Structures are given as C-alpha cells and as structure tokens.
Amino acid sequence: MDVALKLLFSCVVVVFVVFVNDGPAVCGGEAMEPLEMVVDGAENQCPSFSGSGNGGAYPGDTEDDAWPMVQKKGNQFVVNDHPFYVNGFNTYWLMVFAADESTRGKVSEVFQQASAVGLTVCRTWAFNDGQWRALQKSPSVYDEVVFKALDFVVSEAKKYKIRLILSLINNWEAYGGKAQYVKWGKAAGLNLTSDDQFFSHPTLKSYYKAHVKNLLNRVNTFTNITYKDDPTIFAWELINEPRCTLDPSGDTLQAWIEEMAVFVKSIDPKHLVEIGMEGFYGLSTPNKVQYNPNTYAQQVGTDFIRNHLALGIDFASVHIYADSWISPSITDAHLQFTKSWMEAHIEDAEMYLGMPVLFSEFGVSANDPGYNSSFRNTLISLVYKTLLNSTKKGGAGAGSLLWQLFPEGTDYMDDGYAVVLSKSPSTSNIMSLHSTRLAIFNSVCSWHCRWGCKKKDNILDAFLYHDDL
C-alpha cells in the first residue's frame, strides 16, 4: 500500500482521540463514551492490509480457526457486531484454473494482489455443468479433481483473508447453466421446449437442489471444514443473473426464488443468501420502471423489490452495465445512469427491503468505442463515492464487487472488462484508497448503539473523502 495511505489510516485515530477530548461523538442520535472506544479502536480494532492479506480481520479475531461468519444487522453487514462494508471483486474462473497444476498458481496470485489493495470479498463460480473441466458431469455426478480444485480456491481465499460469494448456477450457457440442466432433462426423456422451464419443471428443480445439497455438505479436502460451516464463505448466490422471459409476469421466477432460498437455508442457516439479480424493476413497481436502462428490462421476468422480499433472502444484489444496457459507446450518460441506478436501489433497500444492497458486478469494457482508462477510473470512483455517501449515513449501500480482477498472463480469458492491477497503477490506487476508507469506517465506527455515524465538525468525512494519494 502507498505510504501516504498508511499515514492516512494512522492519522484518523489521532484526530479522533484529539476530537473526543473536545466533546462526545454522536452515533444514531445517542452520545457514546468515545475516548475509551477510540483508544480501543486504535490499539485493537484497526485492520491492516499492507499486503499481508488480513484486510478481513476484525475485532475478536485471534486465529484463523476463530474467523467469524459475516452476518447482517438491519441495513448493514456485520462481523462480530462490527460494520463490514465491502470492497471486492469478481474472478469467475478460479475453480477451472485451480483444476490444472499449470494454472493453479494464478488463483493464489489474484488473491494476493487483491489482498494487497485491501479487497475483502471475491465472487466466483461454484458450478461448471457438463462442459470442459465440468464440476458436475451429469446430475449429481462430480469430477473429484474439479471438486478438489474448488476446495483449493476456498482454502486459498481463507489464507489471504478474502471471503467468497459462491454462485450455484448460471442463467447463461457459459459453464453450462440452466440450458445444460434442460439438456440433461431432455436426455432423461422429459418434454422440454424452453430453457426457462428450468425454473418450473420438478425434475430440473430436483437436479438443482441435489447440487446445492452436495455442495453445501461437501467437506473441504484441504481444510477439513464442511462448506456450510466455513466462515470463508460470505454468501450463497442462487443463480447468476436470472431471467425468465417465458413468463414476463415474474410469477415463475418468484416461485423459484422462494422455493430455493428456503431450501438453501434448510441445509445451511448460518450463511447469508442472495439471488444474483441484475436489479431490473418489474410489474409490481410500475413507478420504478423509469430507472430501468431500457423498456426490455421489465419484460425479462425479474422484479427487484418483489424478488428480494422472498423469505430466506438476506441481502439485495444489483449489477451495473451501462455499456451493455444503454449504449456501447462511452458517454457521460453512462455515469448519469450509474449514479441514479445505484441511488434508486439503495433507497429501495432502506425503504422497502430493510437489508443491505451489494453492487455485485460493475465495470466497463475496453472494447467499447471511446473507451480509455481515465473513463474506467472515473466510473469506479463514482461507484465508490456513491457508496460512501450511503456509508457515512449508515445507509444500505453495503459495497461493490468490480467485474473483474485478473492477474498477469490470463489475457486470453479477458472479456474486455479485466483489470490487471500490476498494469493499472492509477486504478490500483483508487481501489486501495477506497479500501482504506472502508477500513477506517469499519474499525473506528465500532457501534455500541444505533447505526449511523455523525461526528462533530464532520471529522470522519474529511478522511472518507481525502483524495490525496
């Protein structure tokens, strides 16, 4: 980490100690006992991520085996009852790379680089159905080599103190997805005419449930910890970017979400569960469809608020792709959409859902007309600033996951969105600074009262918005 960032992180404790001698801090409208709390925070509660990989460490962590689960409390994620605001990333292909000795080192490399800039959560695939390097070769038939590769990914994430969101199936054909489940059903003699019947046919739902059961009850061959008991896992994601155009009313997908969320929780009540939604508004909220990127978005069978009210869903997920949804050509309209899209979903999470919202994919493609790295930095900064505006008010904007982080030498996997930190120092600095800001907030604002942090003279703001690197 940059030396200035280390100084910034150290300075905040001094400022708070000076401040609290001048008067009490106010948290959620109530006075705290601030001097003890801040001195405590200075000595025991400030995580460090100067490349050591312990950016996920929290108060009460004494050793790896005692690493606590992430939970939610109202609109926030918490660890040991302390706030856990997320700066993270996606690298979807980790399991496949870990299955080959020649590429396994890239898994460690990306975790090390992410840890060095303070990233604490990674989202990746825990599926590969019927394809090359398949985890699930046919329903409930697994390639043990690939399953051990996933075990390695989980164990390596733990080593670098990075938590994982594991997605259970794809809506799209890449890595098999619901289309592969339909192929398996047809091979078994089922009369299926649409991939969207994945969401409604009892046999296909039984295939999915069997995979969930097998995965959650898996004992990791590296750590000897059952997946459903492993705090390295941040959350289970039901499906990546679900859409059911066969039923634009949304009823089919809603019923599937309700059934599967409860099923996952019946096996594993400890971990958080999210859907994997893109965030489109549907028929239940006609006043919200104005925020959709286009009219087609309300015809794909998803319904952001309705979907997330399902029993068993712990937090909301939203994706941000202005270049895919609005126009591939880079314009300021991308930034305007990103800001309004985020603010609308944060407001919904607070007013209607009562849960955190994680912007679990966002990015911009280098293949877009008019793209340059400066625009990418501007977009990333906008996402981070919008989240900080929520964070400082104790709002529901709980974090973001960049799509996507790659180590060097994996360019052939790049879909245009890859960020290679070693080749992008300006982007790396932006990410590291945001991690520092969140680490300051997570450790100094140690709540013993209600959420929401207001400090006299906005001292916290001065550090959350300090732009000098």
Attribute tags:
single chain, 469 residues, alpha/beta, TIM Barrel, 3-stranded antiparallel β-sheet, 14 helices, 39% helix, disordered N terminus
General description of the model:
It is found in: Secreted. Its EC number is 3.2.1.78. It catalyses: Random hydrolysis of (1->4)-beta-D-mannosidic linkages in mannans, galactomannans and glucomannans. Residues 1-25 form the signal peptide. One of its GO terms (cellular component) is extracellular region. The protein is an alpha/beta fold. It has a single domain (76-445, 456-464), classed as Glycosidases (TIM Barrel, Alpha-Beta Barrel), CATH 3.20.20. It is 39% helix and 13% strand. The chain is built from 14 helices and 16 strands. It has helices at residues 3-20, 34-45, 94-98, 104-116, 144-159, 177-187, 202-216, 251-267, 304-308, 322-325, 332-353, 373-391, 425-444, 459-464; strands at residues 26-27, 30-31, 71-73, 76-79, 82-83, 86-90, 121-125, 136-138, 141-142, 163-167, 233-237, 272-274, 316-320, 357-362, 397-403, 453-454. It has an eight-stranded parallel beta sheet with strand order 12-11-10-7-6-15-14-13. It has a three-stranded antiparallel beta sheet with strand order 2-1-16, with no helix packed on it. Strand 14 (357-362), helix 12 and strand 15 (397-403) form a beta-alpha-beta unit. It is globular. The protein starts with a helix and ends in a 5-residue tail after the last helix.
